[in-house]
Amino acid sequence: MNIQDDILVALRRITRAIDLHSRKVLKASGLTSPQLVVLQALKKNGDLYPSSIARIASLSQATITSILDRLQAQGLITRQRCTEDRRQILVSLTVQAHERLRDAPELLQAGFLREFDKLESWEQLQLLASLQRLAELMDAEDIDAAPILEVGDIAKN
Amino acid sequence: MNIQDDILVALRRITRAIDLHSRKVLKASGLTSPQLVVLQALKKNGDLYPSSIARIASLSQATITSILDRLQAQGLITRQRCTEDRRQILVSLTVQAHERLRDAPELLQAGFLREFDKLESWEQLQLLASLQRLAELMDAEDIDAAPILEVGDIAKN
DNA sequence: TCCGAATACTTCGAAAACGAATCTTTCTTC
DNA sequence: GAAGAAAGATTCGTTTTCGAAGTATTCGGA
Known about the structure:
2 copies of one chain form a homodimer.
Chain A: H1 3-29, H2 33-45, H3 50-57, H4 61-73, E1 77-81, E2 89-93, H5 95-103, H6 112-118, H7 121-156
Antiparallel strand pairs in A: 1-2
The structure holds a DNA duplex (30 and 30 nucleotides).
């Protein structure tokens, strides 16, 4: 009926697929997708602050804290207070984490991304462009809503 | 660096935007996006079984149960055992739900979909097509994985 | 130097989401 | 007709996710 409804349905199908994939990865490796994202960010960039991880992964700081809690409980990361700025905490991979990542290096690439690989290059770029366009539109929501509120603020002065 | 990483980042930005929007709607209306989706499905289709709602919304039955629990706690739906097939339960909107939906009819359409409306028709269709293509790729993951397992099954016989 | 603002992280509470297990009811097969 | 399979819904346990509130630390200005 409505193109907007179709968009919402497609988005819902995608988020569901992401969730189901995460659970499949969990059964195979004992780690969820978000946990793997955090570990791979650390592998790629070296030691990081929680706030940096949050920025890289597009997650809130609170979410990162809870993911780090579980990774630490599994002995995959360590937290170490910074000496210069004692508000910050440096997160490092443990030896076990490196082993774990070596054993299962491409878990995130599995599944849908294998399918994605089979596509022509132009189609891959097309899909990426569409996703980034949508992400912009959705991020813009907050920014666009602000001026509407400001009208009220200005009226108050 | 990698186009696959970019895809994952864009997907993460989109799911985050969906979550943030849901929380904003919650503050404005007292209902989250998934709750509104369920209510609007009932408004559009009339009384439904939980399994039907799950199919329409692309959610698991367990998730629907918990959403219905909250809607029922708010007095917005009623559950009624079927007389013909007593395994099934018929979910209906209450009078309050109809009022609530009349007062806030387009909450889901708010935000990003307003932006979406401003786009040219061809771009809207382009974005929809890309999303549906991705949803197919991601749904295909399970289907594609199955035959691989079957090889082992056949070998066992 | 000291006090309030800003920053970094954690804690808390709540919704969402799922699979697996469970319960009830219906259907199928013998 | 009874035993077992199948189907519909719920319950349970877990992770993710967030904002808001709380804590500790640093910074900036008076």
